[in-house]
Amino acid sequence: MIKIKNLYKSYDNFEALKDINLYIKKGETIVLKGVSGSGKSTLLSIIASFSKPSSGDIIVNNIPIAKLPDIHSCKYRNENIGFIFQSFNLIEDLSVKDNIYAPLVVSSIENKDEALIKAMKKANISHKKDELVKNLSGGEKQRCAIARAIVLNPSIIIADEPTASLDRKNSLDFIDVIKEFKKDGKTIIISTHDTIFDEQDYVNRYINIQDGKIIN
Amino acid sequence: MSIFLSSNVIVLLCLEFVLFLFAIYSLLISLNIVKNWDFAKTTSSQYNLEKRSFLVSTIIYFTIIIKIFLFLFFAWTLDSLASIVPGAMCAAGIINANSYGDILLFLKIFIIFIFTLWIIINKLDLQEINYPYIKKKYLLYIFTFLLLCVEIVLDYLYFSNISTKEPVLCCSVVFGSSSAISSLPFNLSISMMLTIFYILYILILVSNITKNSFVSFISGFLFLFVAYYSVTYFFGTYIYELPTHKCPFCMLQKEYHYIGYIVWSSLFLGIFFSISSFILNVIIKKDFKFTYKYAILFSSIFVLLCSSYVLVYYIKNGVLL
Amino acid sequence: MLNKELFLFSIKLLKKDRSAHIFSMFIFIFIVFILASVLFISSSIKFDLKESISAQNQIIIFKQKAGIKTQIDESYIDEIIQITGVANVHGKIDGYYYFNTAKKYLHIVGDENIDENNMIVGDSIKSLLEQYYYKDYFNFYTNGKKYKINIKNTLNQNTNIISNDIMILNNITASEVLNFTDDEYSYLEVQVPNDSEVDYIALNIKEKFPQLLVSTKEQRLSDLENLFYYKGGIFLIVYIVALISFFILLYKQISSVNSVEKKQIAILRSLGFSINNIIKIKFIQNFLVSIFSYIFAVCLAYIYVFILNAPLLKNIFVANISNISFTPIIDFNILIVIFLFTVVPFLLAIIIPSWKSAISDINEALK
After folding, report:
1. How many CB atoms are closer than 10 A to CB A163?
2. Which domains does chain A have, with CATH numbers?
3. Is residue B145 domain-shared with residue B7, that is, in the same domain?
4. Which chains, if any, share at least 3 CB pairs under 8 A with chain A?
5. B232 shares its domain with B194
6. Of C222, C276, C348, which has the smallest distance from its Cβ to B86's Cβ?
7. Closest CA to C155 of C109, C201, C217
8. pLDDT of residue C112
9. Quick check: B123 contacting A, CB < 8 Å?
């Protein structure tokens, strides 16, 4: 569950987010819509604790993350957030297996190898586990990124423009994956321009952001 | 011929100097933190301070590892200098080559002790979500920095005043096996001193089992001095198997299988943990089980090791020295 | 503090980023190699000299005139031999003969066990003489007289750095060649069977004959150590200057983190790697690089000095000797000194760059 109250974020003299108030229930699927520069990515990066707000409160899964010190915010991010980037952000010269294993390196869970195998199976990328990421196709990279995001079974999945680098078929595959996540009870936040997400029944809410403010 | 041109001494002094430069840099950051830290603020300068505190802790972690290593190397160097300084047979002669030696040795140990405390406090500070001990931590560092200044000056003064021409005293003169007057403080006899030695050890054990940090602190502090004299004037003679050989340093040499390093390090660790429980209590008002545990462990290793030399000698020879 | 998985992961990343470390590794290996070679050579020479001194008799006596060593005459022997504790006193011939044609000084040592017309020479002397067509004998010219001495034997080059450079002649011949009179010697050797009496006897002799320079074996060993500390020290100071420039270079190189590396770090941070984790990874990687380079460079130096006999570098230490073989001596102390002088500063140099790359903004790098 995500509770955001009076959130402001400014860079130098530019206000990226103004007075954001938002409540996202556990298990909800949210789609964030807005033009480039509207503040979608900033909001997502704050929820994922990549950056800290200038003021306001944000409580995720009962953890106030606004002012968490680095060690704690990294632990929070590792255990609670699975982030899927637009350009996948995989380490190209490592294998699929090593990329998916990366979050496990700093986690404190017990059966790391089991978690790895489970994630690869779920994302349907086990057959490519020893392949270097740079040799994969776009869809395979997407699946690798998905596996990495779910390997620690986080309760929140954040996807920033997930289908921007994919063709139609892979985009539809991605939607199937989202539906699976929803079935598993995960909270999903997708930021996108892609119309493929419009008017879908698996989406609980559509939120529009413009000039750093939520408008609907 | 200056002692500075021994390659060991050059390495030692260069590294101490470089570490000192890093310490100055850390000092500047520490002063900034002590002055401007405000966890409630969300300004970028506050976040920068948080990031800089990571740099200081990294520097300090690295410094203490090097300092421990350098301290062992310092002991080794003193021993090796014995071959070029006339009259010296072991580090005892070199340490007493001038008046700075004793203080320098004690200061080096004390600095390592304080840094270790700092690391413990740092670890505890990072475990909390609002850096509760940060200002105290950096005040402690500033205090340590002053000690580092003294250390570097003493390093220079000490090494520059070791003459390779004038003979120094060797341990038999320094520790007075040939002197008629007792060299023990308060004119104690050996048996009295040993009684106090074992009593203090039991006191350390009991206070750490019952988790009484104040008694542990007092007994640990006293034990340091009593143990030093006991090892030099009694237990050492059983290590050397010679009643007239009274020296705390000769046991660091090869012929005694370098046992000196184990004897002294177990003593220092035992004392460190005995004393630190009280100090941590004072600074961060919390109790830590591990300090009690390790105080018992290391002081016991020390006492058992020393006592075993006496026991083994008695079993082998049927008499005591 | 350090978990096994982070360690293994750091190695994986290191293997992948090999090329980024190659340049610094190469320079580092070179620096360590030079330092190690120089220290190996000097300690080997020191060891040989120490052995020579240890093989000598307990007390050596020189006569001094105006502070300069000069020939000592026989008359002292009778007086000194009477001191209790002295077993024997021998006069020794030891000097340099100027070989005009080659413009070189030859080190002559007298020995009573060798025949009048023969001599034993060291390996490098043999080669020198052969250069001037003296194959089986050599002519000494002193005071208008010619002394033809046959080369009976050659000392193996592997014996000792000192003996390489020596010509051992019969005592009387040596004395004549060096233009000594019958009762003159270069120095006197005093045999003292009881070690603990040496200092006392030396003092005794010094008191009796204040104009003589009396040196005990212990003093000579100590002087030798001092000499080596001196030479070693000068070198190290010069070396430090070179080292500083290297580390500035290294610092610049590591600081210039390229965008690919920045992105990689940002990716790891986004997955939950803390600033401390990133710093640890950098440390592990650089530690492995430096340790490996250190071991490699030390082995290389060992081969260079003790197997190839240090071509080029040995001329800094030993002039005039063409064939030389260094006695393989590996001192634990030297290895520690090299380690402290190279690996530790290397790691110190990477603290700040590692921290800088660890704290960089995640969002910026991931865009």
Report:
1. 22
2. 2-214 (3.40.50.300)
3. yes
4. B, C
5. yes
6. C222
7. C109
8. 83
9. no
Confidence of residue A116 (pLDDT cuts 50, 70, 90): very high
- Looking at the structure of chain C, the number of domains it has is 2
Which of B120, B139, B170 corresponds to the end of one domain? B170
Q: Is B288 helix (H, G, I), strand (E, B) or coil?
A: coil
How far lies C299's CA from each of B282, C38, C47, C240, C289, in Å? 52, 13, 20, 22, 15
Question: Do residues C36 and C297 touch, judged by C-beta distance below 8 A?
Answer: yes
Provide the shortest C-alpha distance from residue C285 to chain A (in Å): 16
Q: B126: distance to nearest CA of chain A, Å?
A: 7
In a shared domain, residues B213 and B164 = no
Among C271, C274, C363, the residue with its CB nearest the CB of A102 is: C271
Report CB contact under 8 Å: B39, A54: no
Is residue C301 domain-shared with residue C203, that is, in the same domain? Answer: no
Confidence band, pLDDT 50/70/90 cuts, at residue C92: confident
| Nearest CA among C89, C95, C59, C94 for reference residue C74 | C89
pLDDT of residue B96: 80
Pair (C31, C93) in one structural domain: no
Taking the model in full, what pTM does it have?
0.82
The answer to whether residues C228 and C198 belong to one domain is: no
Domain count, chain B: 2
What percent of chain A lies above the pLDDT cut of 90?
70
- Does the pLDDT of residue C322 top 60, yes or no? no
Helices (H), C64-196: 75-81, 123-131, 171-177
C63 and C211 inside one domain: yes
C235-257: b or e for each residue (b if 16 or more CB lie within 10 Å)?
bbeebeeebeebbeebeebbeeb
Task: Give the closest-approach CA distance of A7 to chain B in angstroms.
Answer: 12
Domain match, B24 and B160 both? yes
Residues B96, B68 within the same domain: yes
Higher-pLDDT residue of C163 and C274 is: C274
Mutate to test the interface with C, among B25, B58, B160 (most CBs of C within 10 A): B58
Over the stretch B18-52, which tens digit does the pLDDT of each residue have? 999 999 999 999 999 999 998 888 888 888 999 99
Question: What percent of chain C shows pLDDT beyond 90?
Answer: 15
Domain carrying residue B185:
175-317
Domain that holds residue C87: 58-215
Q: How far is CA C110 from CA B83, B109, B208, C96, in A?
A: 31, 56, 74, 11
Task: Quote the minimal CA–CA distance from A104 to chain B in Å.
Answer: 21
Instruction: Dump pLDDT digits (tens) for C173-229.
Output: 888 888 888 888 888 888 888 777 787 888 888 888 888 888 887 777 777 666 665
| A78/C271 touch (CB, cutoff 8 Å), yes or no | yes
For residue B197, the distance in angstroms to the closest alpha carbon of chain C comes to: 36
**Whether residues B144 and B190 fall in one domain:** no
Q: Write out chain B residues lying below 8 Å of C346, CB-based.
A: none
- What tokens were used for A149? 């995001």
- Dihedral (C-alpha) C288, C294, C299, C303: value to the nearest 10 degrees? 140
User: What's the CA gap between C257 and B303, in Å, rounded?
Assistant: 53
Cβ within 8 Å, pair C236-B7: yes
B128, B153, B170: which is the final residue of a domain? B170
Local confidence band at C60 (pLDDT 50, 70, 90 cut-offs)? confident
Question: Measured between alpha carbons, how far is C246 from C117 in angstroms, rounded to an integer?
Answer: 58
DSSP string, B192-241: HHHHHHHHHHHHHHHHHHTT-HHHHHHHHHHHHHHHHHHIIIIIHHHHHT
Nearest alpha carbon to residue B52 among B117, B138, B129? B138
Subunits that touch chain C (at least 3 Cβ pairs < 8 angstroms)?
A: A, B
Reported ipTM: the value is 0.93
If asked whether residues B56 and B118 sit together in one domain, one would say yes
Residues B156 and B262 in one domain: no
Q: Which of B1, B62, B83 sits opposite C351 (nearest CB)?
A: B62
Task: Look at C276 and A79 and tell me if their CB atoms are within 8 Å.
Answer: no
